[in-house]
Amino acid sequence: MIYFLHGGGYFASQPDTYLLFLLRLAEAILAQDLTVSIFALDYHLAPEFPYPTQLNEAIAAYEYLVHEMEIPTERIVVAGDSAGGHLVLSMLVKLHQSSSLPKPGGAMLFSPWLSLHQTPSMTAEMDVLSASSLRATARRFLGPDQADKEIAKTNPLLEFLDPTPETEWDAVLPSWVWITAGSNEVLFNDIEKWTVKLEKQLGKERVSREWGEKEVHDWQWLETMDEEAKARFLEKRGKCEDFKAVMKIGKIVKKNKLK
């Protein structure tokens, strides 16, 4: 079971925005002689529903999969892109803090948003996102009264680069984690820094990564968009090779024995 939390800065998108991506993801996994189901959560969006609405709904959906659908936690892989990756980590930390439920079997993070107060990468001008847009998105998500408070900058449920207190990643993360990002994206410095830290703490057998050379934010999803929509996002990127990046993900799942 892939439990998918979509991106969109917590204020945009919904599961059907990712329909082709999720279909291609399922196809990639089936190509590895594995069976798979995908559950994509349609959580409420900011600013009408600010934090922690999305976190509470993500936890409730995980409880639903385990208790109502009776899916063993070790067979659940939680996945998310961009803000969805942020929500994945927020959910995992919350499960560790206050839930009796076991953590899921694995996690896949696509260009995860790790810090709401990030430092832009040197190549950020090549990305489809900008640092200023991310700052505005953080304020929309948290609400204007919370966005500038120090607690929002260090809260372990919101901040994954430099949380206070330090997050116990060994206890929080599943038995395997796969992280991917594009070298031209605004979030790349943060993602690389955090991934290297995890590799040192947990080992490369548990934490694996794939960097897309000269790729932009969330490029695996972008490559599944129709040509008109793709053109709006990829003015600086060049030609996109349809579905090749998504098809690689099936091998990642097979390697980690999702059955």
Question: Can you give a write-up of this model?
Answer:
The longest helix has 16 residues, at 53-68. The chain has a six-stranded parallel β-sheet. 40% of the residues lie in helices and 11% in strands. With 259 residues, the protein is an alpha/beta fold.
- Give the strand line-up of the largest sheet: 2-1-3-4-5-6
Query: Portion of residues in helices?
Result: 25-40%
* Number of DSSP-assigned strands: 6
Radius of gyration: 17 Å
Total helical elements: 10
Alpha-beta classification: alpha/beta
Distance between the termini: 9 Å
Describe the biggest sheet? 6 strands, parallel
What is the H/E order? Answer: EHEHEHEHHHEHEHHH
Mean pLDDT: 87
Q: Can I get a quick summary?
A:
With 259 residues, this protein is an alpha/beta fold.
Features:
40% helix; single chain; 259 residues; alpha/beta; six-stranded parallel beta sheet
Task: Give the SSE layout.
Elements: E1 2-5, H1 19-30, E2 38-40, H2 53-68, E3 77-81, H3 83-98, E4 106-110, H4 131-142, H5 150-154, H6 169-172, E5 177-182, H7 188-202, E6 207-212, H8 219-222, H9 227-233, H10 244-255
